[in-house]
Amino acid sequence: MGFVFLCTAVAAFAQNNVIDEVIWVVGDEAILRSDVENQRLAMQNERMRIDGDPYCILPEQIAVQKLFLSQAKIDSVYADEKMVLQRVDRWVNWIISQLGSQDKVEEYYGGKKLSQLKEEQKKVVRDQLVVQEMQQKIVGDIKLTPSDVRKYFSQISKDSLPMIPSTVEVEVVTMEPKILLEDVDAIKARLRDFTDKINKKEYDFSTLALLYSEDQGTAMRGGETGFLSKIELDPEYANALTNLNDQTKVSNVIETEYGYHIIQLIEKRGDRINSRHILLRAKVSEQEIEKAMSRLDTLYTDINANKLTFEEAATYFSSDKDTRNNKGLMVNQNQESANFGTPKFEMEELPQGMGVVVDKMQVGEISKPFRMRNKAQKDIVAIVKLKSRINSHQANVSDDYQALKMLVEDRKREELLNSWIVSKQKTTFVRIADGWRECDFKYPGWIKQ
Q1: Are 163 and 319 in contact (CB under 8 A)?
Q2: CA–CA distance from 298 to each of 77, 84, 95 (Å)?
Q3: Are 63 and 26 in contact (CB under 8 A)?
Q4: Which residues contact 122 (CB under 8 A, 6 or more apart)?
Q5: Exposure of 313 by Cβ count < 10 A (0-12 exposed, 13-18 middle, 19+ buried)?
Q6: Which of these ranges, 10-24, 71-85, 158-172, has the smallest mean pLDDT?
């Protein structure tokens, strides 16, 4: 949705002796000149582009925000305060990691104390979550049938159809190089040392996670995973969490497909659990990589000599459990992708190192062994077979139904929110100060005729 306007950064706005003023009033809410300047500077700091005059676009965005927040008060829609605190904590960890220290953060934001910045950020995040909840309540669940998608497709001109990027279907055989026992022992010893430092209160768990965890997705949040159900977690990780009931305790070192972890419980909420962890991976030696490459090269030779098919090799020899029972065929697991749940991948959706190889292949061709990283970020070796390739083209219902369905859902969602905004304008008192009215607003109804 294009209707969440609050920036997630706190701007350092200095008025430079200019007296602040009320430039808009929406209902009983005032929009100050400083509000606009703060948001403009925050977007500038985050290198976010503004298409047009910021002193027209930003006040209107804030005004739309006020409409959602006003309705949220009427409908008793509130933000989850625990989620607010979690997001603020993540922001604090992130900004400290970017600038280097708490002192540098306070200096960057004009001498404001971190506690003050956190309070300001709470307001930003709280409003953002309320707006999102209100939008979802307005839109509800959008359910489309195939006939809805076909109807939409038939009503738009060919020139307006989106371009669908090139996609490929790929089969894979992988082998994981052996990790030496002494390397595993060294990783476990390091994690036990972290546990000792945490128990002695020399370091917070979150600080060590920020500094050393190899899970880049959670490290910036102090190792925090957010609330997840057990089925969303690796089984070994979930089992370790089940045995944790004391938030001050640290788990034993556990092994998952991603590496080695220590875990700390944050909160249990029904069947969902929030935790933090530190992940370390044992490094694979170049010698073991070469051994795995040699084994896979032998398999590659046997396939080309018709001693077995690629699909048989994947079924009986591949270490990739996700594709082994699918004769090596990969399935797109990216839930944000238009190709989710299908064997289709855009080139950038392929695992790191695979896309470069596949891009140069012909349909039916089998690659020589190459080195890559799997979804667990482990160094492995692989061979791939390019099963199919569909070149970039304008969307059509037969080949691109899922992509068109997502497009129609987005359009429907935007239409519903636009209609709601236009309707809400008619019943909301709005006053815009002189000098701020001469704009080509997206929603002209701000200025009553």
Answers
A1: no
A2: 62, 55, 50
A3: yes
A4: 84, 85, 88
A5: buried
A6: 10-24
Q: Which of 38, 168, 179, 169 is nearest to 109 (CA)?
A: 38
Mean pLDDT of 416-439: 94
pLDDT, tens only, 263-282? 999 988 777 888 999 999 98
Compute the distance between CA of residue 111 and CA of residue 12 in angstroms, rounded to an integer: 9
Classify 93 as helix, strand or coil. helix
Question: In the predicted model, is pLDDT for residue 216 greater than 50?
Answer: yes
Radius of gyration of the chain (CA): 27
Q: Using alpha carbons, select from 335, 191, 171 the residue that is nearest to residue 256.
A: 191
Which pLDDT score, from 0 to 100, does residue 5 have? 46
Average pLDDT over residues 209-225: 90
d(CA 260, CA 254): 6
Element (H, E) at 383: strand 379-390
Cα(424)–Cα(4) distance, integer angstroms: 17
Res 38: pLDDT: 85
Residue 11: pLDDT band by 50, 70, 90 thresholds?
very low
Residue ranges of alpha helices (H) inside 283-329 are 286-304, 310-317, 321-324
Quick check: 170 and 358 in contact, CB under 8 A? Answer: yes
- How many whole angstroms from its chain centre is CA 166? 23
CA–CA distance, 298 with 317 (Å, rounded to integer): 12
- 8 Å CB contact between 174 and 401: no
Query: If we measure between CA atoms, which residue out of 170, 174, 171, 172 comes closest to residue 292?
Result: 174
Q: How far is CA 374 from the centre of its chain?
A: 18
Give CA angle at 252 (249, 256), nearest 5°. Answer: 125
Cα–Cα distance for residue pair 132/38, rounded to 1 Å: 21
Q: Check residue 427 and give its pLDDT.
A: 92
Burial (CB < 10 A; 0-12, 13-18, 19+), residue 259, is: buried
Query: Tokens in use for 127?
Result: 């409003």
